[in-house]
Amino acid sequence: MESLKSFLFTLLIVVILGGAGYWAFTSIDSGKELALNNTSETLVDEEEDVGEIFEIEDEAILFIEDEVEELPVEDEPDPSLLALKADLEDLRDRKILLEPGDSGLLVLRIQKFLNFYDPDLNLGEDQDFGPSTRSAVEKYQEDVGLNPDGGIGPKTIEKMLELFG
Length: 165
Known about the structure:
By secondary structure, this protein is mainly α. It folds into two domains: about 30-75; about 80-160, PGBD-like superfamily/PGBD (Muramoyl-pentapeptide Carboxypeptidase, domain 1, Orthogonal Bundle). The protein has helices spanning about 1-25, 30-65, 80-95, 105-115, 130-145, 155-160. Helix 3 crosses helix 4 (about 105-115) and helix 3 (about 80-95) packs antiparallel against helix 6.
């Protein structure tokens, strides 16, 4: 009888352990599944937080739209104008003086500026500081309140740069 009790007790323990093992095997997630579930739960939590942020931003945008009718739109600066400004800054920094009779790329920079300043001028960009360039320089100097001597010095270059802000 004692051996029957021992057998039944052992059988009961095996059944309990087997059932617990089966339950653990079927209901507990593996490492990969657990990581994926935790990640997706975190994403859902973050999406809810982001949704709240968007709601706040939308309210702020509506508030701003009520206060401001139209915001100024800043255009991208024209690369050729940026290059022209850089050329004039280079002339200023190098303390270049140009006068009638000069020629070369430095004169071309001034001719490009003069054509930008007065598009109707149609000054030839021939790198020659001849009579037409001198006349255009004198007209520019008069327009900006400088002594119209026809030469390009620090004051004239500074006035040219003021046009770019």
